[in-house]
Hints:
Elements: E1 6-9, H1 10-14, H2 24-32, E2 36-41, E3 46-51, H3 52-58, E4 70-74, H4 75-89, E5 105-106, H5 114-120, H6 128-135, H7 138-157, H8 163-188, H9 193-220, H10 225-232, H11 238-263, H12 266-285, H13 296-299, H14 309-321, H15 341-358, H16 363-371, H17 385-395, E6 403-406, H18 410-413, E7 417-420, H19 421-436, H20 448-461, H21 468-486
Parallel strand pairs: 6-7
Antiparallel strand pairs: 1-4, 1-5, 2-3, 2-4
Helix pairs in contact: 6-8, 7-8, 7-9, 8-9, 8-10, 8-11, 9-14, 11-14, 11-19, 14-16, 15-16, 16-19, 19-20, 20-21
Amino acid sequence: xxEKGSVVPLxxxxxxxxxxxxxxxxxxxxxxxxxxxLCINEKIKKERLVPFKLLYHNSENFWKQGGDWEYYLTKExxxxxxxxxxxxxxAWKFEIPQIKKEAVIQAAPxxxxxxxxxxxxVEVGYGKDYKTFVEMPIEKKIERLNDGKNKxxxxxxxxxKDVDVIMKALVDTxxxxxxxxxxxxxxxxxxxxxxxRKFTQEMVDTTSEMVKSSAQLIMENFYxxxxxxxxxxxxxxxxxxxxxxxxxxGVAFLAYYNNLVTTSSAIQRLRLSFVSKYRSFYHExxxxxxxxxxxxxxxxxxxxRAVPPDLFFKWSVGFxxxxxxxxxAVEYHEGEGSYNREIVIEHVKLGYQxxxxxxxxxxxxxxxxxxxHEYYGSPDGYGYFRAYLQQYKKHxxxxxxxxxxxxxxxxxxxxxxxxxxxxxxxxIIDVYDSVTDPHRVYRKALSSxxxxxxxxxxxxEKHHKIDIILFDIFASFIKExxxxxxx
Length: 487
C-alpha cells in the first residue's frame, strides 16, 4: 500500500536543471535500490506502488506518455534516493529544480467502504475470490463449476436470449473456472503424479464440459467487447481478468476463423495474394526452402482449413488454462518486486509441467500453455520446447523445420513445424490483451487501432514473432466486431 503524505513528481526528480535529458545517475540508483513509483489516477481514484524497473523496462520515458496516470516518489523514497546518491557520488550530481508547494500533492484518498474497495481495487494475482476458493473443500469447488456449467446450459436452451445475461454468465463462469483450476492445481502439486491426476480428474471433466457449453454460447453470439470488458473488470484479480478476456476472445476468434474459411472465398484470396503479401515473411522463417516452394501449404502444413469440433474444444480448454501455472504473487509482472525474466520463463515451464504431470487435460491444451511465448524462435520469446529442440538438434544437426504452422500436434512434437496453430493464435490475443488492458499501470493502454499498428510494426515487420496471416485475420476480426458493436 502507498503511504499518505507528501509526494514528489517523478519528472522533477529525473529531469535535471541543465536540460541535458534524463538523469541517468538517479535512474540507476532507483533501479539498484528497487525504489517503487507511486502511480496515481485521479480520474478513477486509484493508486499503486509499482517497481520503477518494470515501468522503465517497458518504456524509458513512461512518465511522458500522457493518459490518466501520473507518477511520483513518496517523501520517504525521495529521501532514500537522495541518501543513496550521496553515498554513491558524494553529492547530488545534478540539482533538482525547486519544487513549488503546489507540486507537492496528497495521494488519492483510499476507498471508505468494503464495497468501494471491491469496485476500485484490482489486486495483483488471483484476487480476493482466490482466498475464498482456497478455503473451500474440493467438493464445493467442483459443485461451483457444475453450477456454472448448468447455468450456461440453461441459457443455451432458452429461445429468447438476452446478450447482457449471456455475457455476464460467460464472464462469471470463466472467472470461477480460472481461479478454481489454479487453486486445485496448487493443491495437486503437493501430491504424487498418479494421485494428483485422480485428485484433479473431476476438475478436468467439469471444466471441459463447461468449456463446451460456453463455446456454444460464444459461437451463437457475436458478443459486445465493451460489455465484456465492463464485466471482466469487476473481478478483482489481474491474472483472472486477463485469463477471462483471453479465453472469451480466443474462442470467439476461432469461431470467426471457422466461419471465414467455410462460408467465404478467404482461402482463395489468400492464395492469390500469397506471393505478393506473405511469401517473403515465411521465406525468412524457412530460408533453407527454395523461395518458389514457399507456398500456402508450406506456411500452414496441409493448407488452411476449418478447425474440427474436437480440436476446437481442446484448444478452447487450452486458452482457458494457459496461465493457471502462473504464480499468484506475480512479482515479476504486476507486483512490487523488480522484473525478472528468468521467473517469467520459469512460470511457463512449471505451468506446462504441472498440467502435464498433475492433470489429465488433453495434450493439445497442455502444449498451448507451454508454447504460447515461442515467437517463432525470436530471442525475445521463451518456452518449454526450446530446450527440447536444442537437444534434438544436438543429435540431429542437419535437421530442419520445413513448415511454419501446423494444425496437428505431432509435427510440432516431431520438430517438423515451427509453430502450433492454437499457440500462434494465443500469442496474438495475449499480446493484444496486454497492450489494450486498461488496468495495467506500467504502460498506457492502447486503442485497438494503436495496438494493431504497434503489433504489425514490432511483431511482424521488425521481428518475425507472430504469424502474419493469422494476424491479418485477427485484425479483421477486431474491426468487424467493433463495427457490429457500433450498430
